[in-house]
Structures are given as C-alpha cells and as structure tokens.
Amino acid sequence: MAFLDNHLNAPLLTADEEVRLARRIEAGVYAEHLLATERAGDVALVAVRDDGRDAWQELWTANLRLVRRHAMDFAKRQSLPVDDLFQDGCIGLADAMQRFDHGRGLRFTTLAHDYVRHAVAASAARRGGMLEGPLHRQRIRQRIRRAEADGGRVGRRELADLVGASPLAVEIARGHTASIDEVPSAQVVFVDDFDRVERVGTDFLNLLSTEAAEFLRLRFGIGRPTHSLRQLAARLSISESTARRLEAVALELARRVLAGDDERCVLPSETELDPTMQALGPRLLALAAA
After folding, report:
1. pTM recorded for the entire structure
2. Which DSSP state fits 208?
3. Bigger pLDDT: 259 or 87?
C-alpha cells in the first residue's frame, strides 16, 4: 500500500468540515443531473459538478486511514493479505458516503466506522475459507472455539447453550466447509449442491418466496423446461450478470432452508426479498405459465 501513503496521511476532518463537504457533494450530484437532463453545457453547473467531485475525493481521502486501521487489524488477527482487505474496506467506505445524511446530525466517521468494519469483517470471513458459509456461521465457530478452549469439548446441547445458538446450528458450524482452493468456482458449488437436493425432493421450494422458487424451477427444469442463464436473461429482459446474481441469491436462500442453520430460525422468504427478484415476479410467473 505504499502508493497510498500520501493519502493515508491526510488530516482528519472536523464535524463542520464533514457537513460542508457533504453539501458540496450534494450540489455536485444535482448539477450533474441537470447537465444530463436539462442544461447541457451550462458553465456554472459544470463548475458546481467539478467542485462536488473534488469534495467527494476529499471526504474519501480523509477517511482512508480508517479503512487501513480495520484492514490491518483483521489481517494481523487472521493472517490475511492486508491489501485485499483494504480494497474491500474501501467499498464499505464508498457505501457509507452514498448513505450519509448530514441533516441527521450524525458524524460521518461514526457511520463510516460501521460500514467499513462490516465490509472488512465479511471479506476476512470469505478469504478465510468461508466459501459457502454465511457470516453468522463464522461467528458461531468462533464462539465454539472459545467455549471449548475454556472448558474442553462438551455435548452438543450444552455447547449450544454456551454459544447461544440452536443445536442444529452448532452441528453445522462444526462440520467441514470447503475452502476456496477445494473447488474451481463458487458456481460449481451452487449447481452441485442443488443437483444433490433435487434427488431427495423439492418441497422446500414452497418455503421460499414465490419469485425465488420460480426462478430455480425455470433455471434447473423442475416441473418446467430447463433454461440457461443466457436464456433466462433474454426471456426476462435482464442482463446475464443480473441473472447470475439472482441465481446466487435464490440458491443461498434454498441452502439456508435446507440446512436450517439460521441462528434466528426465521425463514429467508420472510426476511430477504431481493428487490430485483420481486420486480421480476410477474415476468417469472408468465414465463412459467407459457
């Protein structure tokens, strides 16, 4: 990260400076909208747009040291490459910048701390071999290790009480999870897992949202003609990358229903409705009925 040293030493911002930068960014975004829709070539708006971009860069640069601190902390604790964690932390910083509302009186650094730390923690979990395990399962594993370090191995129910999770969640967390080196790609894991459960029945699809269930039926030919991702994208009028993302979302929900390892024991269909998947509901139903 040597090339970032100059930026990482940028001065910290005060609360008033954060608000002023946020206002400049807002003005720049609005000016860019006007230039694109109504007043193309307006010199004054171009100046406001450019000033907003400069403000964005200044707010970004001033908070890179926060990203570095979290990245180095997780890299040291888990022996992971700091540069990779830093990059993912920067994504969290950008997300915080997009969501910052200076009118609510909250310091930007407070908001950024939460978003950056979550992004780095999720990245560390993935890079630590948690290819198909969600972040809550990683946390259960950490609690199990601490509990067993303190009192040795105990029974499943006693251990579940100690770590605050269901016995089933503990059993799954203690099982083997494939590392990223053990499979050629995440896509292979998704398809192989789904092919396996298809042989033992597909009633679990009724526990998913209607949209996710129909997407999987169409994708894998369950009571419907099989569709490739390219075919689904064309029939639904979406990009192939969007179809691939929706497949991953639907498969993750299916996997969680099958595993039954959600700490909170809440069905994914009740808590995680992808907006894009929801919007495609009528098209999916029409395609299934065709």
Report:
1. 0.47
2. S
3. 87
Max Cα-Cα span within the chain: 72
Cα end-to-end span (Å), the chain: 54
288 has a pLDDT exceeding 60: yes
User: Residue 4 burial (CB < 10 Å; 0-12/13-18/19+)?
Assistant: middle
Radius of gyration of the chain from Cα atoms? 23
Give residue-wise pLDDT tens across range 162-196: 777 777 667 666 654 444 444 333 333 344 444 44
Q: At what angle do helices 64-78 and 82-99 cross, to 10 degrees?
A: 140
Spatial separation of the C-alpha atoms in residues 21 and 18, rounded to whole Å: 5
Over residues 7-37, the pLDDT tens digits come to 667 778 899 999 999 999 999 999 998 988 8
AA letter at 98? Q
Residue 209 and residue 139: Cα distance in Å, rounded? 27
Sequence-distant (6+) residues with CB within 8 A of 119 are 88, 89, 91, 92, 93, 95
Residue whose tokens read 């971009």: 53
Q: Determine the Cα–Cα distance for residues 251 and 208; give it in Å rounded to an integer.
A: 10
